[in-house]
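Hi, here's the filled form for the chain we discussed.

Project: internal
Contact: R.S.
Residues: 120
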Amino acid sequence: QVRLVESGGGLVQPGESLRLSCVGSGFTFHTATMSWIRQVPGKEVEWIASIMSHGNSTRYADSVKGRFTISRDNAQRILFLQMNSLKSEDTAVYHCAKADSFWTGRYSFPGPGTQVTVSS
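And the returned structure, exactly as it came back:
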């Protein structure tokens, strides 16, 4: 079955960086469009980035554009999210997921998530 496991979260100060990783198994990773989403307790899930299977096409939510970079290593079955210039409002649980479509925010099979806390 599809399994996605995120790592790399932690506590950082505003302006610092983090790199999240997500290892996929149980599906054909190199043909899958993938996404990162995040959730704050009590708020709706926010889609933040997607990447096509070949890695050459990406798209981002306005809230993270220019600060976050999604990438992938198909040989290692790993999805990445490089997060720079972090802000307190980036505090959330970050999940990777299979994207239902590159052009929508819909997704399936989110992983359990990794907590990112941005605080001074």
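Let me know if anything looks off before we file it.
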